[in-house]
Queue: 3 jobs
Job 1
Amino acid sequence: MSERAAPFYCPYCGDEDLRPSEEGHGAWECAACSRAFQLKFLGLLSRGLQRADDGGNRT
């Protein structure tokens, strides 16, 4: 099993001073803005993302 992925910055303030939280798997704390948040990987998309400007057509 691989290591857990760590966020690079806080989604609220953008600071990089993050620490794992004791709240559980995927939970992080930001020392700069005193917010706690949780990340969760939902899975892979079956077809992947398509750009809106190409109309889904690939030639």
Job 2
Amino acid sequence: MSSARPAGLPHVDAKEPAVLVVPGPVTRDEVAALCARVRLLLAGNGARVVVCDVGGLGPPGLAVVDLLARLELAARRAGGRIRLRDPDPALHALLDVVGLRFQMEGEPEQGEPAPGVEEAVETGDPAV
């Protein structure tokens, strides 16, 4: 059974980014397909971020670092970024060691204050 596409622009939910569940372990042959999927998710719904659920990747290693770097590169070339969901603490540490920075789900975006933090100005503070 098929149905026609609705007319007009596709619905984009700004609150819920696209999610790509990355199964583990990923073989070298699957990397290109996952990169294509990231590009498709960014182009398909006008999103700027694709959340990559990496909880099922298993023990981190350089193959996982290579995969994530390639996914980020594919996303940037498509005008977006990836955000990691449920990374293993060892993966987080390994990414720090190799010098790659990824936005993790639940962390405030760059330039935004952490949740629950309010800026306040004390009276008598000099203007900057």
Job 3
Amino acid sequence: MSAVEAKLAELGLRLPEVVPPLAAYQPAVQSGVYVYTAGQLPMVEGKLPVTGKVGAEVTAEEAKDLARICALNALAAVKSVAGDLDRIARVVKVVGFVASASDFTGQPGVINGASELLAEVLGEKGVHARSAVGVAVLPLDAPVEVEVQVELTGA
């Protein structure tokens, strides 16, 4: 077990299976020392635990928890191409999309779920640049979607 996966276990978490693509794309691709994930939905065992807009059918706190799941799914996608999460030199960028009710403006707090998980698991390597964007709708009526870019070590 890698040190990153051991840290996940210490936090009571486990790395899920890679979420299969919903369309014509790969869950993650490597280009040089970087791995780019596709947008990761908060899928748990092949299903979305909650659907709807944040600020309407979904609370900000529920959405923050869903963003954590998205980050876990992103780590699984990274591992699928990198082979070992201990190769992560740093998380470079996180982009989070929040399906938002028209008056909801708390997108940064929602995407903190993903950012905080990455920092908990990876320490300083998990601190990153980020965008948190409100959108009208996401695939499958998901409340949140997160994509991650990581830099790998050469080993």
